[in-house]
Specification:
single chain; mainly alpha; two-stranded antiparallel sheet
Length: 324
């Protein structure tokens, strides 16, 4: 019965993302919404990685660093090594995962508060490195990055060259929506696997988990590497859309927003970051009309939501189920 509900929910989600949304945009003529929804989808992928570190009981405020690194790796591989974007996408994620392992080995052995403090400076360190290194072209960044080329296997075209498309915005939307769907499917599978159960044990009692043979340090490192992989591919995808990358492309505020997306949607729900990203992104845009009061109203609403819904917006579903 439960698996049937999951399949129905997945079907409704896929229909909405790949059918209803494009049809609605075509009917209204709001083609600009393709870029907005593409950005939401990619930001939600990075937020999914942050959610996974929350799942092991660690606060990650450095996801913007991996998105920035992933973006630069993709840009350099495209412009310097003449690789296709489709090859740079997994390579960017793998590079970020490897970097996370190097950074995480010493700091993941520390208490949670120290890990949060170290990750807080990672995005700024990455930005300063991008400014200082000659390879990254400093403040000028890397521009004129070509759009994704054709992806073919055994002569069969799986994805056409984006330069030849009449509406590349729609193609980018489908790309981002597909990546988001696959990323959250992977995240859901991790959470519902033996690895996910071990990760959950770290939330409850790390000493008890260690006493039954769980390698806590290795488990933390694995989760952090997967989290950073998500950040890397999200950053690389942003580069493909904007066709440029700068040291300011991802900043500390972005890292904080990735974390807020998880809180807003719900830390106890796999799809919480997805909903949180959607609400936060569109909520901020809607408040733009309030002018100088935008930040004040935004901050007040965030505080109120966390006080009234400490488990996120998705906790409203549980409240409805609990009603007699």
């Amino acid at each position: 019965m439960k698996s049937t509900k999951h399949l129905v929910a997945l079907g409704v989600f896929l229909l909405a993302v790949f059918g209803v949304v494009p049809a609605a945009i075509a009917a209204t003529g709001r083609v600009d919404l393709y870029y907005t929804l593409t950005a939401v989808a990619l930001l939600s992928i990075a937020s999914a990685g942050v959610w996974l570190t929350f799942y092991i009981g660690r606060i990650n405020i450095g996801q913007g660093a991996y998105a920035l690194v992933g973006g630069y790796i993709s840009a350099l591989l495209i412009t310097k090594a003449d690789l296709s974007f489709w090859w740079t996408l997994p390579l960017s994620g793998i590079f970020c995962a490897g970097l996370a392992v190097l950074i995480g080995m010493p700091i993941l052995r520390l208490r949670g508060v120290y890990f949060a403090m170290v990750t807080l400076v990672l995005t700024e360190v990455s930005r300063l490195a991008a400014l200082a290194l000659p390879l990254t072209n400093g403040a000028k960044g890397i521009t004129s990055i070509r759009m994704p080329a054709e992806l073919a296997i055994f002569g069969w075209t799986l994805i056409p060259d984006f330069n030849t498309l009449e509406n590349p915005k729609l193609a980018f939307y489908w790309m981002a929506a597909t990546m988001m769907t696959v990323s959250y499917a992977v995240l859901w599978r991790i959470v519902n696997s033996r690895l996910g159960h071990l990760c959950r044990s770290l939330q409850q009692n790390e000493e008890l988990a260690s006493s039954i043979g769980v390698n806590i340090a290795r488990l933390r490192l694995l989760a952090y590497a997967i989290s950073s992989f998500f950040g890397g591919i999200a950053g690389a995808s942003f580069v493909a859309i904007s066709q440029s990358v700068y040291p300011s492309s991802f900043q500390t505020t972005d890292s904080v927003n990735f974390m807020l997306n998880c809180f807003l949607g719900g830390l106890g729900y796999v799809f919480g970051p997805m909903l949180g990203t959607l609400l936060l992104y569109f909520g901020w845009d809607l408040l733009f009309a309030t002018g100088k009061f935008q930040l004040l109203i935004y901050s007040s609403l965030m505080v109120a939501l966390m006080l009234l819904l400490p488990n996120g917006v998705l906790s409203l579903l549980d409240r409805k189920r609990d009603r007699p």
